Amino acid sequence: MEPAISGAQLEITAGPYTAVVTECGAGLRELTWQGEPLVLTYPPSEPAPAAFGQLLIPWPNRIDHGRYTWEGQEYRLDISEPEYDNAIHGLVRWLSWTTVDMEPGRLRMTCRLMGTPGYPFQLGLEAVYALDPGDGLTITLTAVNEGPRVAPYAHGAHPYLTVGEPIDGCTVTGPGRFYLPVDDRMIPPDGPEPVEGTPYDLRAGARLGDLKIDRAFTGLDRDPDGRAWVHLAGSRRTTSFWIDRNHPWLEMYTADEVPPEHRRQGLGVEPMTGPPNAFASHTDVIALQPGDAFSGSWGIKAG
């Protein structure tokens, strides 16, 4: 086995499903069904490329110039996307997480995010990965404000669905009735617009072809259980993804600017509690009171 630079490689199984979660960031490195990959993976000897499988806390996506205001105070985050001069994908994806308990089909990990000048708040975090032989993988993320002040909070994750073939020939069905336009730095200048009449209307299913998508969607159609679904259908099989009501936003990304060997081999589907630049716009930012908790769940399954 290759040496793992992402720490412990934690494997859980249930029926036809197997998942591997990394100590680094509590990220989802592998998910298979009957040995077939459901998400794009990477070797344990390499860091996660293009945020593969990572948890995005305490904000997903981007913050314009890394600057935001909270309760009258301006903060500046480190610029982690220098090509666009943005702060991207939060602060925990490269931190070591602690395994609290592990069973054959279930894993619970925790992490404490300490305050920094750009985010002077303290969070206790828990990620639970649970496999079911019929329903596949469910991930539940919980944050508790362990500090003395109200904390701005949002979260997301970054799996890339795959059906084992390039996505150009696949059909994708997505739940969004609105999408969020962005500028050339991937920052939304205004609010959402209807998908109707645009290439981003995926509600009835659309063949991807050469369509490029890197957009957040909202106004999500949901089933009676409150889940919004994305289905990626290939020539042999389908991979499906859902998010609960605590995620009113969903980013979809056709993997156009990832390492060449992975390019357009999978579809990024990112559950988000808030949109890009949420800390600056305050759109759907959760004001997490001291001692309060917030949880959200999403999942991936075959078929």
From TrEMBL:
Alphabetical GO biological process terms: galactose catabolic process via UDP-galactose, Leloir pathway; glucose metabolic process
Transmembrane segments: none
Molecular-function GO term, any one: aldose 1-epimerase activity
Classification via CDD domains: Aldose_epim_Ec_YihR
Pfam families documented for this protein: Aldose_epim
Protein name stated in the entry: Aldose 1-epimerase
Species: Actinomadura macrotermitis
